[in-house]
Amino acid sequence: MIWIDVLVQGILLGGLYALFAAGLSLVFGIMRLVNLAHGDLIVFAAFAILLITGSTGLHPFLAALLAAPLMFAAGWALQRFVLNRVMGKDILPPLLITFGLSVALQNGMLEIFSADSQRLAAGPLESASIDLGPVTVGTMPLLTFASAVLVIFALNRIFYTTALGRAFRAVSDDPTTASLMGINPKSVFAIATGLAMVIVTIAALYLGMRSNFDPSIGPARLIYAFEAVIIGGLGSLWGTLLGGAIIGVAQTIGAQLNPEWQILAGHLAFLAVLLIRPRGLFPRAVD
Amino acid sequence: MAYTVTTRTRASSIAGIIALALIAFGLVLPAFASRSLIQDLFFILTMLTLAQLWNLIAGFGGMVSVGQQAFVGIGAYAMFAGVILMGWDPVPAILLGGLAAFLLAIPMAFFAFRLTGAYFAIGTWVIAEVTRLLIAQWKTLGGGTGTSLPREATSDIMGVGAIASLFDLRDAAARDVLAYWLALALAVGTMAAIYALLRSRTGLALAAVRDNDNAARSVGVDAARVKWLVFLSAATMTGLVGALIYVQTARISPDAAFSVTNWTAYVIFIAVIGGIGRLEGPIIGVLVFWGLQTAFADYGSWYLLALGLLAIATMLFAPRGLWGLIADRWGIALFPVQRRLIFEGA
Amino acid sequence: MLLSVQGLTAQYGQFKALFGIDLHVAAGECVAIIGANGAGKTTLMRSITGVLRNAPEMIRHNEDPIGALPADLILQRGIAMVPEGRKLFPSLTVEENLRIGGQVRRGTGRWSLDEIYSLFPILKDRRHSPGTALSGGQQQMVAIGRALMSNPELLLCDEISLGLAPVVIRDIYAALPAIRASGAAVVIVEQDIARALSVADRVYCLMEGRVTLQAPAKDLTREAIHAAYFGATA
Q: What is the model's pTM?
């Protein structure tokens, strides 16, 4: 029975990782850009939500609603004014810029918010649980997972049924030809990064309500997100959810064996998949 | 028309002479330099070497690694293992550091080379994390909290006694001199090796692979072999530097030895600010970095914040770094690796 | 004048591709640009559409300088292009490829999804296939339809017969009268001289980055074209 519980908890934990990963996957899918500051931006969004709850007394869910447009604007501006200037064949400049941003963000947050652990207070929701027969699951993990499914569903709808999604795919295929259609690839990039930051806000909301966070934890979130993306297969959003679940399950199994092995077990699962299926479980046909 | 292919420039010939003079000067420096200057130079030389090695794989090879801390850490821990578990003298134990880094680089390359482009970067980071977590399980070497080199090992390092009597120093200062000389040797050796590599056929192949993997392959360059060669060599050297740094520090912990900030972020900033893809870049970069470090390190995270922003600004406005600006302005190349056709009688 | 190009030069690094091109297109006109490989035809197209940037005054649209505008703004002014090699978006279906052509500019002309399907009925049957799953000729139809979806005043067609069988080329050229009837001016870049002369009002011949001949199509002789095309006085 304990192992069923471990499995379920792991899958639900995977929902959180899929939320970390969805924004990364979105940006990579459209502009082949890997944002090394992605994890730090999640932490940044968590602090933004914390500030809003602190100053307005709003519940984190409502605060996230306010933070989301701000994060969209931040992402849009980051892409429009910084990253768009270095987009091109050479991957080095955008990679190093986001790496610099990662270090700058971490230390900026450290100065402003100190190294103290913080948490988003979600009230009774934090300890609520639902009895599902063989296992009892926390309401919060369940909510996280449901949100991940919803986010990925929504992203897929945007991608495949809207004009914006069409522009995303066209620009991803061939930015020059897209510009001949009257589309400005750089504005599309800016919107994509903005959208990724909205997802980052949702990820930050659950990160902050479920566990403590401090300015230093960003890089580890980036790594989990990255592992979920690679396991799922580049460009596959549902694959990303599965990737998150695999890491989550590996971590809960590892933790069950020895609490010190939790993180390590997740990484090893990633390396195992990379060994067997280097292109991930659901690689996109065209790349 | 008769022609020759050359990489030599007038500045490079002068630079060669100056370099030799500097090395000679560096060797005798401990005779009259203060201990703190020797310590500063140790820091500069080790960071310079790390930056040159990162520059080799990323700037010249196009493999942007964010996992160099893995090699520093494993090198340092291997040296500690040699001293603590096998009773080696710390100086020869540095070689164990190089060996361990080489052995780690094999699986790391195997995994990371499966990831292309930007994902290679995070892949190397993951493997560095895995290594750190595994090392933290090694209880004999202090587990997660770390350990120190035993006093008897540090008090009796080979050569220290001789240096102490030669310069009339106390043991602690003599240890610094020894570490400084080793750092000087590693820095000069690394730069000479990279310079020789870049001027060789393999160097041309490396540039071809960086610029266009497939095209290089189609003209007969064995891209995989070149990448492996460069990645493994750089890892080995990085491991040696890591071990040397921790001979000097004499105290280790997984978090410090595998610190992404200390061994990769700083190193990347040095290369970026100085100029990626040029041997001169890290030299100027490390001097700027040392200056900033000395002036502002007390500001802690404000300093790191500014360093991050400086790196961003450099990539945006001077993507080839300070040396790139200098080279564009005056056309100087101290370590020319660019081949130029010289037409005779033209 | 709908489009006028004056003294247009262009270069890729050290290589100079265009040496002062003068050219104009009136509203509703059909102009053919012929020339051998490397004559600069595609560079000229890339300059007009803003893929390559130039000095503003080198290219004018309705007398406004547009030489320095980026490609997306050129399209929004009503200049659409069928690019060489068709360049359909592989991630998009046939219908999505068509829709994206009219996504930013719809214009006020006759062209809509239904009109494109009645121009090229085969596309309606294949509308849910990925664009790149179609035959070359069908892909060319999609590329033309995609450009028409913005209801352009000026349609630039770069090498639309390249790599296609003669019978397929005939089908595609058969659509041209309908396109012209909708009021759009058309510029056709061709290597197939006979094909170009059969549809064009006027012809420009390019050689090595210069205009070597400009004349009404009906006045042209084989000898004049041969001289302009190859630079030889045969």
A: 0.90
